[in-house]
Amino acid sequence: MFTSTNPATGQQISTHEELTAAQIEEKLDKAATAYQQWRTSSLEERSALLNRLADQYESQKDRLATMATQEMGKTYASSVAEVQKCAAAFRYYAEHGPAMLEPENIELSNGNKALAQWLPQGPVLAVMPWNFPFWQAVRFLAPTIMAGNVGLLKHASIVQGVGALMEEMVLAADGPEGLFQNLAIKSGAVADIIADERIVAVTLTGSEGAGMAVAEQAGRHLKKVVLELGGSDPFIVMPSADLDDAVSKAVTGRIQNTGQSCICAKRLIVHADIHDAFLEKYSEAMKAVTTGDPMDANTDMGPLSSFEQRDTVLSQLESAKKAGATLLFGGEALPGDGAFMSPGILVNVPPSSDLMAEEIFGPVMMAFKVADIDEAIKLANDIPFGLGSSVWTTEPAEQERFIRDIEAGMTAVNQIVASSPEAPFGGIKRSGHGRELGPYGLHEFMNLKTVLLPPAS
């Protein structure tokens, strides 16, 4: 049994039955059957379904957004934006997907010709988190449909309502039965599903531990895996930056989704020449953040996704303080029935602190002072993660250094890191491997078949 609890009120919303072994088997059979139908569908059929799905998300955005806010606490405004982003992703693949799947003509040295052709492979399992409950899953779903594959979603326990709604939307858009199914299962059931011969690949967004477990099982069965794991993204500010703009974006970059995003700015790295002035402005802006009812349009930041998640963040902060770090302000549980906490800033974090190798999934920024660009890059890279990075400078030479030398899958220049349907998304090091979105995300789970054409007579 899964229980959905509103983290803003602590009140139970709904319950969802866990699938039995027999029900899982039935869903795997449906997926295999649906694949045999969908694999031969035309690109026009796939585009049409994606456009109908976009219509569903747009027409049902209030209902979908309310579910996300009630189940995991993000502000209603950000939930609406997330749903609209999903619709944009469906339309992106509907419009551009067919061209991405065009065969490539190859001239061989012996005078013959070949084709490189993209073909579907089968049912793909997605293991997804709660923090962007629609968007994370749509990043997998949209290219899956366009590719001619089918999808099975193991969603996070606390957002089973979202998972059920996503399956409903595909059916409402006249998608074939079995094309996309939500699996109401717990983590312990994932290994056997990965092992099942009907599953051809798996994609996961989540923690390092979950990524290692999924990758190990996929490796045992020689199945392709894409992992988007944690991050501790640097937000680097150099003297030439527009400080007011950087301050504003650093606040947004840290508190968006109550700090519960892999690509949130988590480590503020500021050049010594502007450090004190920047930190003063940043502190004032963080203290001005409005925390409260996520359904209220005037709220900047809602609760954390659960009391358990808040306790995890509070425990991390206590550990850092014991190691010698200083909490300038905030970072405290707020009174009331919800899982709220105040935004804060942590300074003097020693290299020996566990936080230097962990991800803070909550609205507390670690702040550091550096003497020059070399120290900034060294500190940015001195972590096991390599997901995103945000750099603030108007100097072209500095921009080039950051782009070349920061060890990350993404670097944003004078803006915060964000995902987009058109651009590849993913990380390196312990932040995972493989890419989502853009043509790269479409091709990840496809068979690039070489076709040797008959010689010309």
From TrEMBL:
Transmembrane segments: none annotated. GO terms for molecular function: aldehyde dehydrogenase [NAD(P)+] activity; succinate-semialdehyde dehydrogenase (NAD+) activity; succinate-semialdehyde dehydrogenase (NADP+) activity. Its EC number is 1.2.1.79. Coiled coil: none annotated. Residues 3-451 form the Aldehyde dehydrogenase domain. InterPro entries: Ald_DH/histidinol_DH (IPR016161), Ald_DH_C (IPR016163), Ald_DH_N (IPR016162), Aldehyde_DH_dom (IPR015590), ALDH_GabD1-like (IPR044148), GABD/Sad-like (IPR047110). Keywords: NADP, Oxidoreductase. The keyword Oxidoreductase applies. Pfam families: Aldedh. Belongs to the aldehyde dehydrogenase family. PANTHER family: SUCCINATE SEMIALDEHYDE DEHYDROGENASE [NAD(P)+] SAD. This is Succinate-semialdehyde dehydrogenase [NADP(+)] 1. It comes from Granulosicoccus antarcticus IMCC3135.
